[in-house]
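FAQ

Q: What does a record look like?
A: Structure on top, sequence underneath. For example:
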């Protein structure tokens, strides 16, 4: 959520097992209170399904199942990134009925989003410059490097490079190292 907000995404609403995280919820942990302080500016409440009505993007990272009706209620041209693996929150075949772009954590569908795309390069870039910490800017630089690998080949079924693309790790490493230097956390 921090990364999305820092990247300039408008409003972000998060949900947990009990529904949409909002400042008005009395049952939030300290971490969720912090998240509520910079997300859900629209003041949404209710269930995850309520949040999806008219939404442009769904990013699922924790499993569970999102009903097809909820996906159908999203905005026309929506993006569905259902990344739980092996069972995504929305099966890609269902998501394709309603979304313009679909990504998943599964390797048997296009647009596999997997942490193996980022972590080797993030750690290599941080170690290369002996960074004192990993910053949000370094993570954002990694994401931008992944986008640069896709480049002009961007298409609905190619929004993220393959984990087997040999350009991925070097691009992420260089971007993270440069971001660490720019942010003053590099010690080399």
């Amino acid at each position: 959520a921090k990364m999305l907000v820092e990247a300039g995404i408008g409003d972000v609403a998060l949900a947990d097992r009990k529904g949409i995280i909002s400042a008005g919820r009395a049952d939030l942990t300290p971490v969720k209170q912090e998240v509520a302080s910079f997300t859900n500016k629209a003041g949404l409440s209710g269930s995850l399904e309520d949040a999806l009505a008219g939404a442009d993007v769904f990013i699922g990272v924790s499993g569970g199942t999102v009903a097809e009706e909820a996906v159908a209620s999203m905005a026309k041209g929506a993006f569905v990134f259902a990344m739980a693996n092996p069972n995504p929150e929305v099966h890609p075949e269902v998501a394709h009925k309603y979304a313009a772009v679909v990504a998943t954590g599964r390797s048997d569908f296009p647009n596999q989003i997997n942490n193996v795309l980022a972590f080797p390069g993030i750690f290599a870039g941080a170690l290369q410059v002996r960074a004192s910490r990993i910053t949000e800017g370094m993570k954002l630089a990694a994401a931008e490097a992944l986008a640069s690998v896709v480049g002009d080949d961007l298409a609905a079924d190619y929004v993220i490079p393959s984990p087997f693309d040999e350009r991925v790790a070097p691009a992420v490493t260089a971007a993270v190292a440069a971001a660490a230097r720019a942010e003053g956390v590099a010690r080399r």
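Q: Is there anything notable about this one?
A: Strands lie at 15-16, 19-20, 57-60, 79-82, 101-104.
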